[in-house]
Amino acid sequence: MTQDNLVEQLTVAHNQLAKHATNVHKFGGSSLASTQCIERVVDIIRQHCQLNDIIVVSANGKTTDALFAIFQCAIEQSPELEEKITQLENMQSELINSLLNAASAARLQSYLTEDIKQMKAWLSDQPETHHADILAFGELWSARLLSSVLNERVCPAIFMDARDFLVIDNEQEYNVDYSVSRPGFEAKLHANHLTVVTGYICRDSQSVTRTLGRNGSDYSATIMAAISHANQVTLWTDVDGIYSADPRFVPQSRKLHRLPNGVAKELGRLGNPVLHANTLKPLADGKTHLHVASSFDPSVPGTEIGRFGQLAKQELSVTYLNDLILAQSQSFIGDLGREAGETFAALCADETQGLIVIRQEQQKAVSQWLAAHDTEVAFTPVSILATVGHKVTRQGNVKAKFKRTLRHQKVLAVVDAWSGHSVIAILSEPCSVELLNNVHHDMTKDAKHIGLVVAGLGNIGVKFLEMLPKQLARIPALENLHLVGLMTSKKALINTDGIDASHALSLFEQHAVSFDKALLSSWLKSHPYDELIVVDITPSEKFSQLYLEFFKEGIHVICANKWAASAPTPKYNELLAEAKANNSQWLGSTTVGAGLPINYAIQDLLKSGDQICEISGIFSGTLSWLFETYDGSVPFSTLLLDALEQGITEPDPREDLSGRDVQRKLLILARAAGFELSLEDVERQDLVPNELQAMTTEEFLANASQIDDFFATQLNEAKTSQACIRYIARFNVKDGKIKAKVSLECLSKNDAFATITPCDNIFQIRSLWYQENPLIIRGPGAGRDVTAGGLHSDLVTVCQNLANKQAVVKIKGLE
Ligand SMILES: NC(=O)C1=CN([C@@H]2O[C@H](COP(=O)(O)OP(=O)(O)OC[C@H]3O[C@@H](n4cnc5c(N)ncnc54)[C@H](O)[C@@H]3O)[C@@H](O)[C@H]2O)C=CC1
Ligand SMILES: N[C@@H](CC=O)C(=O)O
């Protein structure tokens, strides 16, 4: 979804049933099969449609099948005819009476009685002449009923019989005569109404009822889109999208969230059960997007078909058709082969090898056609198996892979489709479910697409983005990762087609727009990626409060932000539980020690059965740098401003000076070590004087010199006893009692914590296995490079886990 779509979607969401642009919604028979189904459809219309939209309907449930059966009984003069008619009439009456108030029900009931009378008359006298008229009752009843229900419960709605305006000029090709149909429709239109139109039926230029063939209602919907210049068509059906293979047979199939028009058309041509070749014909220009969504679960994002950028074009799918005929003839070599392929709309054809693949029912016609050309033909029963994707015939690597996966099969030929969007293998045996699964696995196993959203483009965020293009190029685990979102506190740039990581910041400068939480939520709920990772590099408590929503959507979170990991215990536990329930990964290695592997070390000890009883050290890069550097020659506040400039402090350095940042880190590590405690359980010495507490960051920085006397005094006192001052975090457990404190301490110069490189962190861990001689981890604990590097390390871990399809949640660094 582009930013434009995003904004538009939000506008739509806030303007349900408001006067707006026309969209077309089509509801299939299964979506309208019962009272309960129709109630669901009414809810969908309430939430997703607007006045002036067009609703196209199929016949309720199995009504068309019942009408076919009735027609057949009449032809065969079967004694079951009366009973079948009564059953169908009763079924329609039940729907009418259960959904409408008494007055409307009586009105529709009387129409139904009239229709049944008419049907019986046609059935008793030349039923063949009225075949299409009889079938048309299904859509007629369905549209009349739905429009009445909408009128009663939702908004003004009118009912239109498509035969009153929709004219086809050639029955075989189902070509629409738009020059008659469009003005005919417009003349009947009522402004500020929903229009409910019968699918499947139309008339010819002699005003004879015609049907639009198999799945004609989908075609009706796209015709209505072309007639009304609609922006979107949604096919509400009983499946929730188009999959990379038929999900009934291929459990590993993935939903294709976005399909380029040409690829969708090719899938329809090669027998995709949801898409049909004619359906896409009226949308050939690609401007109107087609959505496939489930009326049984409308909140689940379906498949969008239209014009897309590069990313959607990388998707591959696999489809097959059994019970076909391979026709081989010398005549098919050269131009005649091409002509035959076009004449019979062959599933595939190769004029160099002289072959075409057709459906069984076409065999006779092909024989006759060839007889006219006086040549011989050999017919062989075959099946086809195809890999379908945007311009796939030009992708040598994909074709090679496809051939490799089929090397043990009896492949008669591998042919490029004329469209360029599929490579088709002709098999001498039917395609088995096992073969379909194997080929699908091989062709799509690397195709999991992961979206990346980066929140926070400050000191660390910018460095993270600077490193991203190189990381994407050199780390195999990031192969299918796409930067799709960037945000700061004020603006966001979301582009589902991907944001070029090499120009991320300038693209953000040029195209970012204001956003709010509702907009973000709506996008996050409908994003088209298999997985989405949000990297939180903000210092914002408010942003951390979105994690619960992220986890509910199965989104993964990597954070440098410490708020969520140090939240009050009930909240923290709720986040862990929600992440686990939805297989969301939550990693926050950089929340303590920046890029140092302290979280991993603690987790590893715990996992291996060790028990930690003490964690202490210098956890703040800022305070480490300040106290290691401060010797009284330069005022403390000058050093503080210097640290801010170097990017090692928190955005507001009082977070460091107050000990709050260290307090959070100690809590995060104690939790990682398996202890349950909250921030209040960690005693904290605040080094910010009261008078500087309530100021804005800018005011504080302007008045920072007020802290100098305090630190000068502390330093001088320490010097008199050959000691030094350091801000130390200490956590220990003795006899089950927890003690946790962060404070300024006066240390002997020989103390392990007294002599570290400025800005380094030092972590000392005592445990069952490290009692006398503690485990020490030491190194740079703050700064742009190491923190951004640590975030990239978490990113690779998440992507690797996703590639390995680990079902178990791992919340590294925070568990
Ligand atoms: N400086 C360091 O060495 C380390 C920093 N961190 C953490 O990294 C985070 C970022 O630090 P800096 O880059 O120094 O901060 P910064 O102040 O330079 O940048 C913060 C960014 O977050 C954005 N932001 C703020 N609130 C937002 C919201 N509600 N929604 C979206 N974006 C929002 C801001 O617009 C800005 O782009 C902090 O949580 C910090 O604790 C973690 C480890 C080390
Ligand atoms: N200000 C912090 C930055 C990282 O969390 C520190 O000094 O460690």
From TrEMBL:
Keywords: Amino-acid biosynthesis, ATP-binding, Kinase, Methionine biosynthesis, NADP, Nucleotide-binding, Oxidoreductase, Threonine biosynthesis, Transferase. It holds the Pfam family AA_kinase. Its EC number is 2.7.2.4, 1.1.1.3. Residues 456-586 form the Aspartate/homoserine dehydrogenase NAD-binding domain. GO terms for biological process: homoserine biosynthetic process; lysine biosynthetic process via diaminopimelate; methionine biosynthetic process; threonine biosynthetic process. Its cofactor is a metal cation. Residues 597-796 form the Homoserine dehydrogenase catalytic domain. It comes from the Bacteria. In the N-terminal section; belongs to the aspartokinase family. PANTHER family: HOMOSERINE DEHYDROGENASE (PTHR43070:SF5), PTHR43070. Homotetramer. This is Bifunctional aspartokinase/homoserine dehydrogenase. It comes from Thalassotalea marina. The lineage of its organism: Bacteria, Pseudomonadati, Pseudomonadota, Gammaproteobacteria, Alteromonadales.
